[in-house]
Amino acid sequence: MKKSSGNFVKTISCPVCDNPNINYFIKKNDYSFDKCNECDFIFLNPMPNQTVLNKIYTDEDTKTTDGYKKASSRLRRAFLKLPRFLPYVLNKNSLDFGCGGGFVAYAISFVSKSSTGIDINEKAVIYAKKRFNRVNFFCKNFSDLLKSQEKYDFVHSSEVIEHVSDINLYMQVLKQLVKKKGYLYITTPDLGHPKVPEDITKWDVLCPPIHVQHFTKKTVSVLFKKYGFNIIKFYKNRKPGLIFLSQKS
Question: What is the pTM assigned to this prediction?
Fold first, then answer.
């Protein structure tokens, strides 16, 4: 259940598992996190709405003289990841959801049947369109995408889920976009990783309101099952990040 108040929404049960057993967890940057005692989900409560969040961070990567922050290294890393994606994108229709400057979508375009990139940041999409003409780029919000008839064999969504104000709306959009038996590749910070500091306030990734929620393997397993996705693989990561592949049932 939610209670709206201006630019913030207060929830009285866990947004992931609907359990009412949530408690205050920690405060940082004058923002308070609650924790679900059932699925370990940690989230800002009250939660800023998406309009507020978009104003805070959508332009950050495009505030550079060359058009995009760390563009060369982002492109190099995108091609280094390509072998991991190959079994799922070869001659398939793929989407990078939250594509930023379009680097991953561009790398995938060399092996896929079609490659599409979608982002809410208009400046990032303009940059991507100018640089990577092999890819179809669009600036769309969640409401637009819920009406979409396009379905994809593979959807990549990296470092997006921790930014969205309404986790269930984000999951509804993913469910809408992924084909039956299609694959979904997600990355996000891992709250359960052994390298997370014991004093979590010292963790630079805990940075509200840039990151408004955090996950463990348990949390994402509960969340993705709720929307018909079976997690088939967690990738090993020396850094405190969750990387996993799921398949729509």
Answer: 0.94
